[in-house]
């Protein structure tokens, strides 16, 4: 009886906590009130040094929204499936203005269980993370909506999705100055920056619906026909105004796998307006042979219903 009551009470407390979260999720955004007095510039476009790095990603002002085209996940038996009618999210990367980049910039926010690379160019070993998954951080912030979206569109291959999300945060967001803990002010709540980064990635991803943009130009996945690199680039440029990086694998770069959209950003990366520009990296897809944009294995994808 006592046990039953205690259990009931525990359930009630949990239910009321999650109800509270539903009514008013804790805020995740940084305090950028100091940015209103800063000059407004696109990242990488003005040689005057950015005075407040919370207001514009510095030095990582060349912002890449990256996506994958996978045909399977390897964890289908666990229900880890790809989103039908959409490419998958890879991340949001802070390249330096010249295309070089930093990685794993803050070991106090190292949540990647399997760091890649394992050792930084300067010889420092990146400590693998052993704690709870980043999905628990999102739950603690009362954002089941975000978690649900990420599980639909941000899909790992060969390992759980949460490991991929952790990798992207620790490798890239820790080098994106507008997610620095200092930007969150004295009221910073642990992992606020992590949840905030994932929201920013989703916002940026939604600006680039690759599957639909290609399909609208008559380019759909096919196991019968190939496309030329020029056809793919032209279709995406016709809609975004810029040529993204297209990444291919397979023999001689004949299997389409990746797209990276290059941007400069006005304001923070959290809310910034992205301005597209041509890729600074040469495509790895063949310029002479046809490129396969393969259909997925039907049992590796599922219907998802979201505004995209
Ligand atoms: C944001 O930071 C400014 C100082 O830059 C401070 O005056 C203000 O109270 C802070 N706002 C919040 C909501 O913490
Ligand atoms: C660069 O920014 C400064 C302010 O920091 C501004 O005065 C100047 O006009 C800007 N230059 C360009 C080319 O936008
Ligand atoms: C790759 O390219 C080389 C040189 O152009 C060609 O000889 C070879 O047949 C190509 N391989 C495939 C699998 O198409
Ligand atoms: C298309 O080909 C890819 C690559 O061989 C394969 O993984 C996929 O299952 C195929 N899809 C269909 C619908 O046949």
Automatic annotation (TrEMBL):
Q: Which UniProt keywords apply?
A: Disulfide bond, Signal
Enzyme class name: lyase
Q: Known InterPro entries for this protein?
A: Ribonuclease_T2_eukaryotic, RNase_T2-like, RNase_T2-like_sf, RNase_T2_His_AS_1, RNase_T2_His_AS_2
What residues sit in the active site?
Answer: 90, 168, 172
GO molecular function terms attached to this record: ribonuclease T2 activity; RNA binding
Query: What SUPFAM superfamilies does this protein map onto?
Result: Ribonuclease Rh-like
Q: Name one Pfam family in it.
A: Ribonuclease_T2
Instruction: List the EC numbers from the record.
Output: 4.6.1.19
For this protein, the record's Gene3D superfamilies field holds: Ribonuclease T2-like (3.90.730.10)
- Tell me which family the UniProt entry assigns to this protein: Belongs to the RNase T2 family.
Q: What is this protein called?
A: ribonuclease T2
Annotated organism of origin: Ceriporiopsis subvermispora (strain B) (White-rot fungus)
Name the lineage: Eukaryota, Fungi, Dikarya, Basidiomycota, Agaricomycotina
